[in-house]
From TrEMBL:
This is Xaa-Pro dipeptidase. One of its GO terms (biological process) is proteolysis. Its EC number is 3.4.13.9. Belongs to the peptidase M24B family. Bacterial-type prolidase subfamily. It catalyses: Xaa-L-Pro dipeptide + H2O = an L-alpha-amino acid + L-proline. The gene is pepQ. GO terms for molecular function: aminopeptidase activity; metal ion binding; metalloexopeptidase activity; phosphoric triester hydrolase activity; proline dipeptidase activity. It comes from Marinomonas mediterranea (strain ATCC 700492 / JCM 21426 / NBRC 103028 / MMB-1). Residues 4-142 form the Xaa-Pro dipeptidase N-terminal domain.
């Protein structure tokens, strides 16, 4: 990647943080990556994920016990832990042009270093939550720190060109995996074999995935966060849902595809949902209300349920009586970036004002309007989830559900189609996921 992109990204971050320093009258903001955690009563750790606030500053995956210090009119300072550890790979500082924009301080004892940072600064990251006493920042209380976080998180939603290129690269790596996963499904592979094919083609280990891949055959594709990978293939693989991403410099892609083994009622349903999904992706433009897009999704899915003879009620009635949520219980999508569900999606200003979704869309993760530079997911779904169907049958007298048709579709599980879309300044959404699929053709 062009190093000037990273440099201008750094300049944007510096000006955002200088605005925060000025606004809150602070001398410094200290970002901490966090520490390794351990399983209870054990010396083994889950994979380490740094605090996204520090990862945003550095063009390589950030490890534990690392800090960044931002002061007005100064180069950012990277505080790098020197580890006296023969159990793990040496913790050397990555080489590269990025270094010339930084002051790098190597420390052997990060606790001792922390005690040297005093006064009027805000420490952001897990250290401030779990270990507040280790920073001597009694001048700045937690409520002010939360306000500083909100101020910074609000701007984080707008991606710099460097961040967009990272998410684009993460899409490209993931799409290579998705293509191999589809091939493995069509050859009758098990969920585990499909996952291994995905990892190999997207050149990552399972620990590096931005979130655990969801790989479901048949009924399993109706389980929204299905976490298992069966080692034995079913006797017949009718359908396949894969929700899987990749990372670049800490930035994620988050992509879902659903396939049918044969042309039938289920594949026709996939085609209808894809048409709706594409039309929603086409509306990812500056000033568009995302809540309104979610409402259009509910209406669009109700239309599909009627068209495919799954529910006989009118579109309006399905939406008004929340029957459509039986088949589409989640939100349309979310902001995407360093975190798969990126920060700031419900924050409508720098003061941290939260716009809570209304009661009929409790799982919507994005209530903020779309702006140029945001990357969001567009991920409508349509599932046959026994628990939700039973609930609707038990609570709605005139439900209009065609139980025979539903019973015939239940063995296929469900459908989700998810792309990552950038809001551009020319009114044309840039669908980073579809662009990658086209590049592989
Ligand atoms: N992969 C999690 C999500 O789509 O939100
Ligand atoms: Mn996903
Ligand atoms: Mn998603």
């Amino acid at each position: 990647m062009d190093t000037s992109l990273y440099q201008s990204h750094l300049n944007t971050l510096l000006s955002r943080y200088e605005a925060a320093l000025d606004h809150f009258k602070l001398d410094a903001i200290v970002l901490s990556a966090g520490r390794k955690s351990y399983y209870f009563n054990d010396d083994l750790s889950p994979a380490f994920h740094p605090f996204s606030g520090i990862q945003q500053w550095l063009p390589f995956p950030v490890g534990e016990d690392t800090f960044v210090v931002i002061r007005a009119s100064s180069k950012p300072e990277l505080v790098w832990p020197i580890k006296n550890d023969f159990w793990h790979a040496p913790n050397s500082i990555p080489k590269g042009d990025w270094q010339k924009n930084w002051t790098i301080t190597e420390v052997k004892d990060t606790e001792a270093w922390k005690s040297t940072i005093k006064g009027n600064f805000a420490a952001l990251g897990p250290e401030h939550i779990t270990n507040a006493s280790s920073f001597d920042n009694s001048e700045v209380n937690n409520s002010k720190i939360n306000k500083v976080s909100a101020f910074i998180d609000f701007d984080k939603a707008i991606k710099t060109p460097y961040e967009v290129e990272c998410i684009r690269a993460a899409n490209h790596a993931a799409v290579a995996g998705h293509l191999e996963a589809e091939r493995a499904f069509r050859e009758g592979a098990s969920e585990l074999e499909i996952h291994l094919a995905y990892l190999k083609a997207s050149t990552q280990s399972a620990f590096e995935e931005p979130y655990p891949s969801i790989i479901g055959l048949n009924e399993h594709s109706a389980i929204l966060h299905y976490e298992h990978k069966n080692t034995v293939a079913p006797s017949s693989s009718r359908s396949f849902l894969i929700d899987a991403g990749a990372s670049k410099n800490g930035y994620a892609s988050d992509i879902t595809r659903t396939y049918a083994a044969q042309e039938n009622d289920f594949s026709a349903l996939i085609a209808s949902l894809e048409k709706l999904q594409l039309s929603l992706c086409g509306k990812v433009v500056n000033n568009q209300s995302y809540i309104e897009l979610h409402q259009q999704t509910l209406t669009g899915i109700a239309a599909i349920l009627k068209e495919h003879d799954i529910c006989s009620l009118s579109i309006e009635e399905q939406v008004e009586r929340s029957i459509v949520q039986t088949f589409f219980p989640h939100g349309l999508g979310h902001l995407l970036g360093l975190q798969v569900h990126d920060l700031g999606g419900k924050q409508v200003d720098r003061n941290g004002t939260i716009l809570t979704p209304s009661a009929d869309m409790p799982f919507l993760r994005m209530t903020r309007g779309l702006e140029t530079g945001m990357v969001v997911t567009i991920e409508p779904g349509l599932y046959f989830i026994p628990m939700l169907i039973e609930k609707t049958l038990a609570t709605q007298v005139n439900h209009g559900l065609n139980l025979k048709k539903i019973e015939s579709l239940r063995p296929y599980g469900g459908i989700r189609i998810e792309d990552n879309v950038l809001v551009t300044n020319d009114g044309q959404p840039n669908n980073l996921t579809r662009e990658s699929f086209v590049r592989f053709q």
